[in-house]
Amino acid sequence: MGLLELKELTKEYKRGVRSFNAVNHASLSVEPGDFISIIGRSGSGKTTLLNMGAGLLRPTAGTVLFEGRNIYGLRDKDISFFRNEKIGYVPQGQSLLSNFTVFDNVCIPWFLWKREGDVEGRAFILLEKVGISHLAASYPRELSGGEMRRAAIARSLINEPRLLIADEPTSDLDAETTAEIMTLFSRIAGEGTAVLIVTHELDTLAYGNKTYSMDAGNLLPVIERGRL
Ligand SMILES: Nc1ncnc2c1ncn2[C@@H]1O[C@H](COP(=O)(O)OP(=O)(O)OP(=O)(O)O)[C@@H](O)[C@H]1O
Ligand SMILES: [Mg+2]
Fold first, then answer.
1. What's phi and psi for 4, nearest 5 deg?
2. Residue 16 CA: which ligand is closest?
3. C-alpha 152, offset from chain centre
4. From ligand 2's centre to the CA of 93, what distance in Å?
5. Integer Cα distance of 218 and 25 in angstroms
6. pLDDT tens, residue by residue, 66-96
7. What's 4-224's CATH class?
8. Against a cut of 0.70, is the pTM above it?
9. Which residues' Cβ are closer than 6 Å to ligand 1?
10. How is 32-101 classified by DSSP, letter by letter?
11. CB 171 within 8 A of CB 122
12. Which amino acid residue places its CA nearest to atom 7 of ligand 1?
């Protein structure tokens, strides 16, 4: 049984009188330890697919199974709890809460769920891992795009997710930081968390073990090989 199974997922949107499938019968199986990359042109349906896989967007048709459970069979509130516990999500673009410091942004998913443990210590370790521990007390408006992105990555890992989903996580980053983030993701995958990313940079594909391409809503496997 896969960790995450997307079965024949379809999302239909209407634009004016015309309707179209932003995602068209897409199927994908994610196993623990997988590091999967999805590439594809702008508008091909990548974010729509990730959002459905993360429990954020109800599909028009098809099924999302997480650890064998049909997540859209749950109530919305239960989907949120479930996602917060099991899935780390790095959305496309800026997603930090502007009235909170970087440190608090990273800790928020922890406090949305009643948890025990040293969240401060863990948040600090994650900020060090992504190279911005010196910005812990800063507010998002005081950060560069790449620094905000790194804070969002630290936030996505605070609850030790079983699956990390990241939508173009390195799009604002220089080559060196991109390599650092990809190495971090690769290590996380090696520790058993599955990683599913959308990427524009072809260089980053080498870090994953599976690549898919998205073309006008259709998801197709590209290549399979051992991780770098
Ligand atoms: N809420 C919506 N209503 C109608 N159409 C939508 C909606 N959201 C997305 N779309 C359309 O669905 C298609 C897929 O969008 P999506 O955001 O998934 O693309 P993408 O592959 O992530 O693109 P990018 O690389 O630019 O982020 C696009 O044509 C987009 O305009
Ligand atoms: Mg997108």
1. -125, 125
2. 1
3. 10
4. 9
5. 7
6. 999 999 999 999 999 999 999 999 999 899 9
7. alpha beta
8. yes
9. 13, 15, 22, 40, 42-48, 92
10. TT-EEEEEE-TTSSHHHHHHHHTTSS--SEEEEEETTEEGGGS-HHHHHHHHHHHEEEE-SS----TTS-
11. no
12. 13
